[in-house]
Amino acid sequence: GFPTIMWGEASSPESYEGGREYDELASFAQEHITKAVCSMSNTEACSDEAKADIAAVTAMSDEELQNKIVLTNTALKEVEQKFNSQVDELQKQYTQIMADQETSMKTVKTDAKHKYLKMAMKQRGIKEDDEEDDDFDDDDDDDDDDDDDDDDDDDD
Q1: Fewer Cβ within 10 Å of end Cβ, the chain: N or C?
Q2: Hey, what's the torsion of the CAs at 79, 82, 83, 87, to 10 degrees?
């Protein structure tokens, strides 16, 4: 992947999450980087809401700051764990769906004697109607037809 682009106040930079094309980067820079950044040391660049947030944080005692950051970090970890758990579940579902699809494809091919149908078509010089696009996943790479004439389908 790309290296992380950090921007903003040096004491607490933010990760850039936008696109990596020139126009996207230029637009982001024009909108964000050419303007003064709101920070505790530069409140002139802050909105009234941000100024109020800064005032509330700076009014906290050291103990309150530490407790708040611990609570926030704990909440962030919980959100991250929930996300990772959901991604793991989606991956399991995806794996199962792919296995089911592969099984179904093999069953359809076996039941229809697909391998021999293709051999007979080729032997007779008959072209399939959809011969130019055997790409089942529509990702435009046209390389997903694993049904070559030298198949190992001995189930037929």
Answers
A1: N
A2: 170
The whole-model pTM stands at: 0.52
146 alpha carbon, distance to own chain's centre: 27
Mind listing the pLDDT tens digit for each residue in 89-109? Answer: 999 999 999 999 999 999 999
In the block, tokens 């609570």 appear at 71
Q: Is 72 helix (H, G, I), strand (E, B) or coil?
A: helix
The tokens of 151 are what?
């198949």
Question: What is the Cα–Cα distance from 156 to 153, expressed in whole angstroms?
Answer: 7
Concatenated DSSP letters for 49-65?
HHHHHHHHHHTS-HHHH
Burial class (CB in 10 A: 0-12, 13-18, 19+), 115: buried
Token pair of 105 as six digits: 């494809």
